[in-house]
């Protein structure tokens, strides 16, 4: 059985406790690797290495840092198929989606590398003569990255690549359900020429490794994608040391379908948004808010289409829906189906754990007669469960869309421009799609949400650079005399 070690100060090392944990294929329950489990001491070593590496790395010109990222991007491209297969085995998502996940990492690597020749600040006139004003971007320092299992290489790349190009040194803790793709990413960056100590990988538990990352005072920023509960805890703890925190948390993303919508197009979007990645995306469409006039027809067609989905091992090309990541997620989904039934929602399709398969499979599930305040319409389920809610008109639909604590993605299907613009203006979300599903964010645009989805930061796009830099304002006075702003203005 292959063992996967920690990567500290440019070396692959065993965990100091000698302990390991299992990495399991969720479709077959086969063991695919033994992962070294870091403890506090390992994190401390990693942080010290990152601190030592910071001066040299942050002083390396960004275009030179970029060369390493460009090389890594090309290596990711060369290994795309192999990495995608590995991801399907480790995480379960169907192969074509795994290819998309690796592609997202490739795109981010190229994009961040390109930023190496920008890292833009601004220049502006001074109110005084012979004085020059500008802003420059500086790296933050040692940065901690904590990534989720649902995008095993895309989300690590969203964080690692911009953080590196900006000149930070990193402590990176991938999700314990899917560490192998992160390990491969680190190996690629190492092979591409990243100096030792710049990127340190510590696999292990949230309560030890994650907690150390949040509490170590040498770490100046933490970037986390995961649950609302953990995000709130991180924000509270990190505030004590005034760490910069960026959070990407849950979603309860709506698709509004108006009475003038192209229903077949809407159904394509609902099926993709609700059941793609087995519903395990922060951006998954878990609520469909349908105009009452078209709801019956939409429901009928949606059931027909969903019945055709094939659930199974994602390595088989004809599989549409792969397994759920682990048993506790599987049980959580089953629990929510029970809650929905007890609340009085009508289960019209699915609702069960699929038994004869060895892995963690759940039937694509549709509830109707869901009222906006039910728990299944409020809480993030993170599984293949979608709830249909009836709306009277556009204002009612938007009101329902906004009646949750999250605000990540959203979508509207309508042929009417007024409805589309109302949705853009009024839906409380970081992302709104018009006549497209809630998923499919591209890496060169800001990604993130409002309300309980985050704390105001955005990943990807030019905002990725904001996430991983500090701004310095520079006043360069070449007048050779004392000049006083606000005072010497006549
Ligand atoms: C997530 O769901 O955690 O837009 C990220 C999308 C992907 C990223 C999703 N590009 O669904």
UniProtKB/TrEMBL annotation:
Active-site residues, as the UniProt record annotates them: 248
Species in which this protein is naturally found: Candidatus Methanoperedens nitratireducens
Keywords of this entry: Oxidoreductase
Keyword Transferase tagged: no
Aldehyde dehydrogenase domain segment(s): 12-474
MF-aspect GO terms: aldehyde dehydrogenase (NAD+) activity
Superkingdom, taxonomy of origin: Archaea
Pfam families: Aldedh
Subunit structure: Homotetramer.
InterPro entries, per database record: Ald_DH/histidinol_DH, Ald_DH_C, Ald_DH_CS_CYS, Ald_DH_CS_GLU, Ald_DH_N, Aldehyde_DH_dom
Record SUPFAM superfamilies: ALDH-like
UniProt protein name: Aldehyde dehydrogenase
PROSITE patterns associated with the record: ALDEHYDE_DEHYDR_CYS (PS00070), ALDEHYDE_DEHYDR_GLU (PS00687)
CDD domains: ALDH_AldH-CAJ73105
